[in-house]
Design goal:
By secondary structure, the protein is mostly helical. It has one domain. Helices cover about 70% and strands about 0% of the residues. Helix 2 crosses helix 12.
């Protein structure tokens, strides 16, 4: 199913498949899905406007994007503008806090450990909820409906397997982050020990930033692949996330690397435009639209469009991956009138045969005599 060659006798068929993939590169576009995605967004949200539908689908979108970032509003604090005395007070507070932590280091470690465990547990909970919410929101967008309880139960297994995959990826990312930090610390340790910012510290800082940027880009690409392709592949074929990644690699990415690079750039442009719209909407509503859950309802068209765009892009890889085209209602055409049955041809006129003397006599003999009136008198 995944397109592996197997025995050598199948090499010709494998080459044919690869030729079809290479020939189909020109047919894959990152621009053509935009218009149908806009039309599907209009059909889902605006064709028959229903405020309850917006709130229900917004809740599913809220679940689907928990922990993905960009959902909070963090106003920056202002510690300036208080003059020199304010800075002295802040320095005194810092020295006092440092002395208190040095005197109560055990309590500090206990509090820090509790905070880390709380953040870890909260992140795990959000990942579990969003893993099932992604399938719920996808199902609502495909079927043009607003449902919570039924897809929540139906996608239990898919959500749990996706949660395990994302949880392990998150742990791997944290481990890689720790390795980068440890490597940079070891590299800069001589300068740290001497209390100076030397060449080793500069090298560790630049190398650490480069490795951290590469790690973040890889994690972002993996997250995009999971949201845009792994979830729909699992929805269609019922594959586990690792199997869905292999299907994505072998049936879609192979031979289309340039197209997917353009897809990533298109998603970046879409994210910038969506960010501008969210910023405008947040300012117009005095930050009310930035509140959790309400932001998912207020900006639901953006979520539906982004979800529809990835599905229409995926549909270009074959009829098997059609999600929304099949769901779109067919145009209503009046039935053709049934053809009228032809009139039977008139029978040719045949004159009746003239009766002969014999037939006339026999007819007169066989003809019944007229009935007699019973009240008439008998002949004398």
């Amino acid at each position: 199913m995944l397109g592996y060659g197997g025995p050598s006798g199948n090499s010709a068929s494998l080459g044919g498949k690869q030729g079809v993939l290479m020939a189909g590169v020109q047919e894959i576009s990152v621009i053509s899905p935009i218009d149908p995605a806009l039309q599907h967004t209009r059909r889902v949200l605006f064709e028959h406007f229903d405020l309850k539908k917006w709130f229900v689908m917004g809740f599913c979108a809220f679940l689907a994007h928990l922990g993905d970032g960009g959902g909070g509003f963090n106003p920056a604090g202002n510690f300036g503008g208080r003059g020199r005395g304010g800075r002295d007070d802040l320095d005194d507070f810092g020295r006092g806090a440092g002395q208190w932590m040095a005197d109560h280091w055990g309590l500090v470690i206990l509090i820090a450990g509790g905070v880390i465990l709380f953040v870890f547990a909260l992140a795990t909970l959000l990942t579990w909820l969003s893993s099932r919410g992604k399938f719920m929101f996808l199902d609502n967008v495909i079927k043009n409906r607003a449902a919570v309880s039924e897809p929540w139960e139906r996608f239990r297994a898919f959500g749990n397997t996706l949660f395990v995959f994302r949880f392990l990826v998150g742990l791997t990312g944290l481990g890689a982050f720790a390795l980068i930090g440890g490597f940079c610390f070891v590299l800069a340790y001589p300068n740290i020990r001497d209390g100076r910012f030397g060449a080793r510290s500069v090298t560790a800082l630049l190398l650490g930033l480069l490795l951290l940027a590469i790690l973040l880009v890889c994690l972002a690409l993996l997250q995009m692949a999971v949201n845009d392709f792994v979830v729909p592949i699992t929805y269609r074929r019922g594959a586990r996330p690792v199997q869905a990644l292999r299907i994505f690699r072998d049936e879609m990415l192979a031979g289309h690397e340039g197209v997917f690079l353009l897809y990533v750039l298109a998603k970046v442009v879409i994210a910038i435009v969506a960010g501008v719209l969210v910023l405008i909407g947040t300012c117009v509503t005095c930050c009310i639209a930035a509140l959790p859950y309400l932001s998912s309802v207020a900006f639901l068209p953006i979520f539906v469009f982004v979800r529809s765009y990835s599905l229409y892009f995926l549909e270009q890889f074959g009829p098997e991956w059609r999600f929304l085209s099949q769901a779109a209602p067919a145009p209503q055409t009046p039935p053709a009138p049934a053809p009228e049955a032809p009139m039977p041809a008139p029978m040719p006129f045949e004159p009746l045969p003239e009766p002969s003397e014999a037939t006339g006599a026999s007819a007169r003999e066989t003809a019944p005599s007229p009935p007699q009136d019973p009240t008439s008198e008998a002949p004398k």
